[in-house]
Automatic annotation (TrEMBL):
InterPro entries: Acyl_transf_3_dom, Acyltransferase_3. This is Peptidoglycan/LPS O-acetylase OafA/YrhL. GO terms for cellular component: membrane. GO terms for molecular function: acyltransferase activity, transferring groups other than amino-acyl groups. It comes from Rhizobium mongolense USDA 1844. GO terms for biological process: lipopolysaccharide biosynthetic process.
Length: 392
């Protein structure tokens, strides 16, 4: 049985993916809610990955090499099968002319593909930029958590976040903003590593620092203001400042939200996050994110047989696209992803003699799937395009 914190984190995933679907199926051009969904997903991923690895590292039988190997194998089981199934389908039918760029997507270099071209072509795979960012993070970050001296992990997190901030201040020197500004890894490392820093902090204490308790309300207000200013015309210098505000001001509220839900948030919002439909959608959110542009392309092609308008942003596209996406993602989870996830039991992070072992608090997968707890182990997008706001 999952703890409340696991259900609530799944509930947060539902809110994040809902922002993406709203942005890509319903919102008018210029919405940034989808990008907020990306940032929330990044904070969640950084937190869960780091928490899991820190807990494995704390076990008496911890072996860095085995933990690292198990991490990569388990990530591959969770992420690769549906991802490469999507790429295979796109290649087979050459959906939206995307066949020519598949090598980049297959190597998880989508963010570099779009950054180098400075255009969202092919649009049907442009959401994979954030999946590439996460995969690049997954390659490097476990090396830090599993091999760096534990006392240095917190300072390393702060250094990476500082570097990401410095990267943002570099952009006024480059002239007109390009896609590279948002798609290169440093632009997302602050959110991923902010989640990681939360896990490091939580491994020591549940008490929030005073500056977080005092700052999250004003930062939330600032974030809302910058989001409102998104559609306003402004000179390059102000646009750059607004971009920084939109990127950075939601981070502390997101970190606080993830941290509270990881402990079990009380009240009406906590109960909302734990509603079975909310939890269920969060559990399949990886598939929802992965499949939704493919579904969008197919329903637009099927417009002659659909009695409502799905060729443009609007309520009809949102209802039809969301319903179809949830159906496809549910089938994928039940028939494909969940059975593969169960193979993770053969790759425990920590071994105790001849028996697989996991710390009892490791019960949730790194990015959307589920793990058995230790006892279970022992017992057994306007028009046809998609904008640049995505999630993972």
């Amino acid at each position: 049985m999952f703890h409340a914190r696991d259900r609530q984190l799944d509930g947060l995933r539902t809110f994040a993916i809902s922002m993406v679907l709203y942005d890509h199926f319903l919102a008018a051009e210029g919405s940034v809610l989808g990008h907020l969904g990306v940032r929330l997903f990044f904070v969640l991923s950084g937190f869960l990955i780091t928490r899991l690895l820190l807990e494995a590292r704390s076990a008496v039988q911890y072996e860095p090499g085995n933990a690292l190997k198990s991490f990569y194998l388990r990530r591959a089981l969770r992420i690769f099968p549906p991802y490469f199934a999507v790429l295979g389908f796109v290649w087979l039918v050459d959906l939206e002319g995307a066949r020519g760029s598949l090598k980049w997507h297959a190597l998880y270099l989508s963010n570099f593909w779009y950054a180098l071209r400075d255009e969202w072509t092919p649009w049907v795979l442009c959401h994979t930029w954030s999946l590439s960012i996460e995969e690049q993070f997954y390659i490097a970050w476990p090396l830090v958590i599993l091999f760096a001296p534990r006392r240095l992990i917190g300072p390393i997190c702060i250094a990476v976040i500082t570097f990401s901030l410095g990267y943002r201040f570099y952009w006024p020197l480059t002239g007109t903003p390009s896609l590279a500004r948002d798609l290169l890894p440093p632009a997302s490392m602050d959110a991923l590593v902010a989640g990681a820093l939360l896990a490091v902090h939580r491994s020591r204490t549940d008490v929030w620092p005073q500056w977080i308790r005092l700052s999250w309300v004003p930062l939330t207000v600032v974030a809302v203001i910058f989001l409102w200013l998104k559609s306003a015309a402004m000179p390059p210098a102000l646009e750059w400042l607004a971009w920084i505000g939109r990127e950075l001001s939601p981070l502390v509220p997101f970190v606080l939200l993830v941290g509270c839900c990881s402990s079990g948030l009380r009240g009406a919002f906590g109960r909302l996050l734990e509603l079975p439909p909310i939890v269920a959608i969060g559990r399949i959110s990886y598939g929802v994110y992965l499949f939704h542009p493919i579904v969008l392309s197919l329903i637009v092609k099927a417009q002659p047989w659909i009695p409502v308008n799905v060729s443009e942003q609007g309520p009809s596209r949102f209802v039809i696209g969301t319903t179809a996406t949830l159906m496809v993602a549910s089938i994928s989870w039940l028939a494909f992803e969940r059975p593969l996830n169960q193979l993770k039991r053969y790759f425990p992070y920590v071994r105790s003699g001849s028996f697989a072992y996991l710390p009892s608090s490791i019960k949730q997968s790194e990015a959307g799937g589920r793990e058995y707890d230790a006892s279970a182990y022992r017992r057994n997008y306007a028009n046809r395009g998609i904008s640049d706001e995505h999630a993972s």
